[in-house]
């Protein structure tokens, strides 16, 4: 149950990070105030004068060591200011669990110079990946039919005998790494010269080929940037297409449809768990590979890209979705009654201890009973809550299902349930649970301890015993109110990729 007033719900944002320069002798009214959590968060991102001086001196030392360009100096200065303005990962507490935070993996923070350096190094070395991508595109688009047919032959052998998968990496290393490296040192003879001038068994006549990063501002460097740009566009389109296809079916925006998909996937998983070994997986892999390769043929692509076929595919997709929607409406029945709970609030009243004959005055409506032995009571903290009944708000994500609060008549039950001691419970009337004030009372008693005198006689000694007795009612009294709430249904949501 919330312990704030209605006005306190208007500001829930985190403090704005501030870059300020404060000296050690600066005096301000805020210096004498206690540091609250919000003040701590705000001051965590402040840059003191001493720290700024140390940063500038360190930058000056690095600049004096070697001459750098003005752009490099501006990058460092901007990065230093940006690191102070942006909150650190360790101090943030996002509502959504972030698997990329420092809690799981220790990685460097964001830095503009590091980002620029890593991009240049990455772009100068990514060319081999784009060469491999281009070869795959040429292979599956039938640019050279002989190569595509050869791939299908090898794929057929692997599907018929899956143990050949262990040979493929070794064969690829031999034919695509070792053989080209050997031919680079022993080039084949030209066609217009005698072949005996270029024996393969003789000494190498060329240097070994090495792979070096593409120099910056070279043609290969800009080709890599062009290919990287195109890959980002391809990834974005594939990402959006997959999300547009899968997310509406699985994110329970339509609960009946997503529930049907869940049931179908669950039944299919159980069925495959039992009889997966009975399926002809070699034939399935062979058919899938041939289908994917044949669909990449230019003639097939031209036939599929016609407006008539595009319209047919759209109609088939619409029919499939309609079938799923009809099945979900017919077979899936969802619970429409919202979830309900019961919440509580404690009405606390206060009376001064010296005012024995006075009346208790309304003080606050608190989510806790403020019992005599509660941690807040022992620490001397005042009870937290709102002074008015109308300002009590339901928990976040819930709303009131009852029109008004109801007094809990079973006061003894909640007192025993919370193990509250040192109170007086009313089982009739207004059901107040009142603190008891204990006084120290001295009384005479005879001790059971005996001592032996020199003559061997026993002698009893009188002692004073102190005990606590309740004399009158204490400062606080409370009673419990309950009210029903129901969960607020949410029509839709969003997520980040």
UniProtKB/TrEMBL annotation:
Record has Acyltransferase as a keyword: no
Keywords assigned by UniProt, alphabetized: Membrane, Transmembrane, Transmembrane helix
Coiled coil start-end: none
Region (Disordered): 1-72
Domain TECPR1-like DysF: 110-483
Ranges annotated as spanning the membrane: 152-183, 256-276
Any one of the GO BP annotations: peroxisome organization
Membrane topology: Multi-pass membrane protein
UniProt-listed Pfam families: Pex24p
InterPro entries referenced in this protein's UniProt entry, alphabetically: Peroxisomal_Membrane_PEX28-32, TECPR1-like_DysF
Protein name: Pex24p-domain-containing protein
Subcellular location: Membrane
Record's compositionally biased regions (Polar residues): 1-13
Ranges annotated as biased composition (Low complexity): 27-38
Electron transport in keyword set: no
Primary localization: membrane
GO cellular component: peroxisomal membrane
């Amino acid at each position: 149950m919330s312990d704030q007033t209605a006005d306190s719900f208007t500001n829930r944002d985190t403090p704005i990070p501030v870059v300020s320069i404060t000296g050690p002798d600066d005096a301000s009214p805020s210096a004498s105030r206690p540091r609250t959590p919000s003040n701590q968060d705000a001051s965590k991102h402040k840059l003191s004068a001493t720290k700024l001086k140390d940063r500038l001196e360190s930058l000056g030392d690095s600049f004096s060591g070697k001459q750098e360009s003005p752009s490099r100096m501006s990058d460092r200065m901007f990065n230093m200011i940006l690191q102070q303005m942006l909150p650190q990962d360790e101090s943030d507490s996002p509502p959504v669990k972030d698997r990329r935070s420092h809690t799981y993996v220790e990685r460097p923070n964001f830095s503009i110079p590091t980002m620029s350096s890593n991009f240049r190094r990455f772009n100068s070395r990514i060319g081999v990946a784009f060469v491999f991508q281009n070869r795959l595109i040429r292979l599956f688009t039938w640019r050279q039919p002989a190569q595509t047919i050869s791939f299908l032959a090898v794929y057929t052998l692997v599907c018929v005998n899956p143990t050949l998968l262990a040979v493929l990496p070794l064969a690829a290393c031999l034919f695509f790494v070792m053989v080209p490296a050997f031919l680079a040192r022993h080039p084949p003879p030209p066609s217009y010269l005698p072949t005996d001038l270029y024996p393969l068994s003789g000494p190498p006549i060329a240097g070994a080929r090495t792979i070096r990063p593409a120099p910056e501002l070279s043609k290969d460097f800009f080709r890599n940037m062009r290919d990287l740009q195109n890959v980002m566009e391809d990834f974005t389109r594939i990402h959006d297409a997959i999300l547009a296809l899968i997310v509406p079916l699985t994110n329970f925006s339509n609960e009946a449809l997503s529930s049907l998909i869940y049931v179908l996937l669950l039944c299919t998983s159980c069925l495959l768990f039992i009889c997966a070994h009975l399926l002809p997986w070699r034939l399935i892999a062979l058919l899938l590979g041939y289908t994917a390769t044949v669909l990449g043929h230019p003639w097939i692509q031209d036939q599929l890209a016609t407006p008539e076929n595009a319209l047919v595919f759209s109609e088939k997709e619409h029919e499939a979705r309609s079938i799923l929607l009809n099945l979900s409406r017919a077979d899936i029945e969802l619970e429409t009654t919202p979830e309900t709970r019961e919440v509580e609030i404690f009405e606390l009243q206060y009376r001064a201890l010296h005012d024995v004959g006075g009346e208790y005055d309304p003080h606050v409506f608190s989510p806790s009973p403020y019992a005599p032995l509660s941690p807040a009571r022992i620490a001397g903290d005042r009870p937290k809550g709102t002074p008015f009944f109308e300002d009590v708000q339901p928990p976040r994500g819930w709303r009131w299902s009852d029109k008004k609060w109801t007094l809990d008549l079973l006061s003894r039950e909640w007192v025993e349930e919370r193990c509250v001691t040192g109170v007086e419970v009313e089982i009739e009337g207004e059901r107040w649970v009142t603190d008891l004030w204990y006084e120290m009372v001295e009384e005479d008693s005879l001790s059971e301890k005996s001592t032996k005198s020199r003559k061997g006689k026993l002698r009893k000694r009188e002692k004073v015993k102190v005990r606590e007795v309740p004399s009158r009612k204490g400062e606080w009294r409370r009673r419990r109110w309950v009210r029903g709430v129901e969960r607020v249904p949410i029509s839709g949501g969003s997520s980040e990729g």
